[in-house]
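INFO  loader      accepted 1 record
INFO  loader      residues=116
INFO  predictor   begin
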Amino acid sequence: MELLLVGLMGIAGLVSFVCFIVVVVKMFQNGQTGLGVASIVLAFCTGIIGYIITLVVGWQNADAWKIRNVMMIYTLSFIVQLVAFIAVWAMFGLAMFGLGEDLQNQMQNQQFNGGF
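INFO  predictor   done
INFO  writer      dumping tokens
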């Protein structure tokens, strides 16, 4: 299940990245160079803030730039990626928590049974 979610996260991330590039190109073509540069820098430095900027600016200008379909795909892929990311980390967190309990129980059993 985790592998399926990681694969889904990867595919959605690739689609998001392509849509991100399309929106950034539209920013540059329409004279919003500062937002384009800020989006690129923040996307690579923070991972998510640049993507959020392009989502907001893209939706604000979707009709004027004729990218409504791109924005729908971008939004859907961004949400799918975010949900898959949260699900994967929740599963790994639960697995790690369970592993920690097992290790603690083994150590307590060894102490009570007389040795390490």
